[in-house]
Amino acid sequence: MSEYRIQGATGEWEVVIGLEVHAQVTSNSKLFSGAATAFGAEPNSQVSLVDAAMPGMLPVPNRECIRQAVRTGMAIGAQINKWSRFDRKNYFYADLPQGYQISQLYHPIVGEGQVEIALDPKNPEDVKVIGVERIHVEQDAGKLMHDQHPTMSYVDLNRSGVALMEIVSRPDMRSPAEAGAYLAKLRSILRYVGSCDGNMDQGSMRADVNVSVRRPGEEFGTRTETKNVNSVRFVMAVVESEANRQVDVIEGGGKIVQETRLYDPDRNETRSMRSKEDAHDYRYFPDPDLLPLELDDAFLEECRASLPELPDAKRHRYENALGLSPYNANVLTNDVETARWFEALLAETAKASGKGEADVAKQAANWLISEFFGALNKLGKSLEDSPVGHEAAAGLLALITDGTISGTIAKQVLEKMFETGDSAAVIVEREGLKQTSDTGAIEAAIANVLADNADKVEQYKGGKEALFGFFVGQTMKAMQGKANPSVVNDLLKKALN
């Protein structure tokens, strides 16, 4: 990947990017209370006395939230701190009933780690390592609702106290594409681990985007922070628009102010929200209501043993054990649901065809990525809401594998499976779509094709061997796609030679 540069009026500029990702921890209850965390609940229906900061209420750490943070740290090869502490971050806002947020600054639960990103999706081995500074656990604030009343704002405390992991990267990214790849890879890892559902559209994962510009190789410039960006595409757009804005300001003789900004996707621009506070402005101090967290070896071992096979390891296994191309292996392992679907399809196909998984893996991968995904895209559906499950899809693949139908006919069968919900075998039988290996019928079709295209036969015999594919296509067309392609190839070669 070539270096990303902004061409300013006075020369080239380099962009420096760091992301602070807030990921909502997968848990049935909040970080310090037993209140529920379900998305979309009625306002203020999931608020305990602790979340509402009633006098005398004491927080109690949720073991599952701590466990998920530790497992996430382990998944990115990070240092796990056996001793960590909660701090109070003091600020005053209508959706923060305590007047402070319980967070971790000085002693986070997870230390340094790293995330490996692919710079080129077609070549997953072309990678860059992005450093992660720390992961700390904190509680979320509530939400102000400004559109419910003409003169007043309402406060919904359902999110108050929800557990978040703040995953802080190092400023190691140098282009919008790298920032997008990092966020997508981090989301993939969290979904594999099960520590966050990654639903950015529901706000359970969002990014604060830190951007600065500099002359290539010089000292870091002053950064701005664009808050609460909720998609990979928008993160990339923020980097590009904010970096260009900063170059214009500097080249116009101005100075970049360290500030918090908001992104307006309709105008594709960032705008100033407030001056950026430093840590000392929040008067951090250890939370007196909470003892430090002390993790023992048994707990850490339990966390490590619970980790699944992660995307990079799975991709390497698909390439080495199943013989998949790097591109296909990458597509199938990027998202945990896709990988699970593929593995279920593979197991069912091997069972239905009586072959080993390695024997049917390439065909299953190619078919899933090209034909099945294509059919789903036409319907505007995802794998999760596919009308055809992996068991039914495996039944169709098995019919291709044993020669009952051709790949061309399989596309028609798949469409009918989506429409009717019937199995591939039922559709093939009902509509007479079985592939024929009847040499007599195929030879007759070939004879007609060659007779109708005598000029092309002469060209073929004169050395234009690329025409062989034309003859195959015409023969398959004459047989309505039902001829066995390998038999067609053999008989055509004999007829032409």
Description:
With 497 residues, the chain is of the alpha+beta class. The chain has 3 domains: 6-303, no CATH class; 311-431, no CATH class; 439-496, Orthogonal Bundle (Arc Repressor Mutant, subunit A), CATH 1.10.10. The protein contains 15 helices and 16 strands. The chain has helices at 63-75, 176-193, 232-251, 297-305, 311-320, 326-333, 336-353, 357-379, 390-401, 407-420, 424-431, 439-452, 454-461, 468-478, 485-496, and strands at residues 6-8, 11-24, 83-84, 87-90, 100-103, 113-120, 123-139, 143-145, 154-156, 163-169, 205-214, 224-229, 259-264, 269-275, 285-286, 293-294. Strands 1, 2, 6, 7, 10, 11, 12, 13 and 14 form a 9-stranded mixed beta sheet that branches. The protein has a 3-stranded antiparallel beta sheet with strand order 5-4-15, with no helix packed on it. The protein has a two-stranded antiparallel sheet with strand order 3-16. The protein starts with 5 loop residues before the first strand and ends with a helix. The mean pLDDT is 92.
Itemize the secondary structure elements and their pairings.
Blueprint: E1 6-8, E2 11-24, H1 63-75, E3 83-84, E4 87-90, E5 100-103, E6 113-120, E7 123-139, E8 143-145, E9 154-156, E10 163-169, H2 176-193, E11 205-214, E12 224-229, H3 232-251, E13 259-264, E14 269-275, E15 285-286, E16 293-294, H4 297-305, H5 311-320, H6 326-333, H7 336-353, H8 357-379, H9 390-401, H10 407-420, H11 424-431, H12 439-452, H13 454-461, H14 468-478, H15 485-496
Parallel strand pairs: 12-13
Antiparallel strand pairs: 1-2, 2-10, 2-11, 3-16, 4-5, 4-15, 6-7, 7-10, 8-9, 11-12, 13-14
